[in-house]
Amino acid sequence: MITGKNQIGNQQSALGSVTFKTYNPELNIENEQLFYEASEEEVDKAAELAKDAFKIYRNISGSKRATFLNAIADEILALDDLLIRTYCSETGLPEGRAKGERGRTVGQLRSFANLIEDENWRAPTIDEAIPNREPAPKPDLRKFLIPIGPIAVFGASNFPLAYSTAGGDTASALAAGCPVIVKSHPMHAGTGQLVATAVINAAQKTGMPDGVFSNLNSSGIEVGKQLVQHPHVKGVGFTGSIKGGRALYDLAAKRPEPIPVFAEMGSINPVIITENALKRRASELASTYADSITLGTGQFCTNPGLILSVESEAFSAFIQELGDKVIAKDPQCMLHPNIKKGYTNKRDLVSDQSGLQVVAEYYSELAENYAPPRITTVNGTEFLENSKLHEEVFGPFSLAVQCSDEDQLLKIIESLEGQLTGTIIAEDEDVPDLGVLVDTLRERVGRIIFNGVPTGVEVCESMTHGGPYPASTDSRFTAVGINAIRRWVRPFSYQDFPKALLPEVLK
Ligand code: NAP
Predict the structure, then answer these.
(1) The CATH number of the domain where 371 resides is what?
(2) Is 196 inside a domain boundary?
(3) Does residue 205 sit within a domain?
(4) How far is the CA of 367 from the centre of ligand 1 (A)?
(5) Are residue 395 and residue 427 in the same domain, yes or no?
(6) Radius of gyration of the chain (CA)
């Protein structure tokens, strides 16, 4: 049941005086339920409980933590239609998307459960002693990975389930042995509370310590700031804007004890199309990319926001066809009036830049929170000179850049900020000449897709969802797939330890 209260360990609590409501963007009205923003005292209580829970939770066996994660997945599924209805009423996203995202969330929890069933994920290594080594004896050293402590997780607006309350950040941190305090996203606080209840039910059924999980409401930045600055919090997971992620990163760095912030932020995901591909299958590519750009109303961090090719008749024709196909699609609802406002402002700011041309425009009247898609184009020189054109427009928008030649195309790629993905669309006969392009693109991105679209992030071990700043704050890690667990652990060594004091896996 949704009460609007905060979940502080096993207790629900509403001590604060600040309240807020979520919004139904489809109906353009506020939802009825009132939510109580966590007070300073409640944030502190959640952090104290997490600190105490960590002392127990870090020593609970992997197989028991796996049971906990699987139980969370079961409890989420048991929420059934109530969860789906609440999700849709708080996001404007369709039921199919809600169910798909629930499947992904449950799948992530189960894949982390599977990972920690044995201790190999801790990368145990043993270097046995050589007492008679000359000139000095070699000590016995045994190393593995240990959890870093309570983690603050910021729910993402665009993934109310898979990257929020019990999403990838929470699942990976709990799997690692770290308690989690979620700063619920205010746009879907009801969905967040339902999932939080599922986590608590699972924790109680599987005997996890009180404080292993808390869920805090807030409609402003204060709760998040207090959490990141709290001495008991030892790491942060975030998905959202560059402004928000950077602010939290700076805050964490200024603490007396700085802590890691793993923020996954903006990306325009460049797509490079060769002339041969344009000549051979421009129409098919225009359809595929019209679908990708408008998928989920463009509210994906992997949305293809930048399309590059050397100027040619074939590229001009492709850009026009893409524009026509994009505006022929039924516009869709955005997550929230503020996201829609952000989209309109940013889209218009970019569209107003010198040399930029709007390819096709949607003129019909739209319901309040619906977003008209837009395709724009500019030449490579203007793009290189204007950093505003390099910024993310979060929504169904893409900019096609017509480069003067291959050198300029490479220069543009080098000029881009760090990206989550890059895509190369090419024909077989192009392959022998793609080495320099791949090498240049690889420096700027976390993943390159060949002849596909960047939207759709497979959850598996080989996935990298991260990239050089500002795609993420630490390009050495991924936010998707089982290796996401590595963000919440540190290496630790035992030297010359008696066997009785060693953990089982290092004996
Ligand atoms: P956001 O503004 O970055 O907020 C994300 C979360 O961080 C919210 O819970 C927010 O709290 C908190 N937060 C933001 N700034 C903070 C600060 N200075 N101190 C403490 N907490 C802070 O992202 P959003 O609400 O999801 O969407 C806003 C815009 O972000 C979008 O329009 C889009 O441009 C971008 N975005 C990008 C991606 C991507 O994957 N590239 C994903 C989502 C959003 P409050 O909401 O309570 O203030």
Answers:
(1) 3.40.309.10
(2) yes
(3) yes
(4) 24
(5) yes
(6) 24
Q: Check whether residue 240 and residue 278 sit in a common domain.
A: no
**Residues acting as catalytic residues:** 264, 301
Domain that holds residue 406: 270-450
Look-up: residue for tokens 């791949």? 438
- Model confidence pLDDT, tens digit, residues 326-341: 999 999 999 999 999 9
Total tally of structural domains belonging to the chain: 2
Residues 323 and 355 in one domain: yes
Query: Are residue 174 and residue 188 in the same domain, yes or no?
Result: yes
| Calpha distance 453→307 (Å, rounded) | 11
Average pLDDT of the residues of the chain: 97
CA distances from 275 to 10, 49, 279 (A): 60, 60, 6
- The residue to mutate among 93, 157, 264, 369, having the most atoms of ligand 1 within 8 angstroms of its beta carbon, is 157
Q: Give pLDDT tens digits for 39-73.
A: 999 999 999 999 999 999 999 999 999 999 999 99
pTM exceeds cut of 0.90:
yes
For position 231, which CATH number holds?
Answer: 3.40.605.10
Phi, psi of 299 (to 5 degrees): -90, 50
Between the alpha carbon of residue 300 and those of residues 71, 83, 178, 269, 276, the distances in Å are: 29, 21, 28, 11, 29
Cα–Cα distance between 70 and 114 in angstroms, integer?
A: 9
Q: Which residue has the tokens 């599977």?
A: 114
Residues 183/216, Cβ–Cβ less than 8 Å = yes
In this structure, the answer to whether residues 312 and 353 fall within a common structural domain is: yes
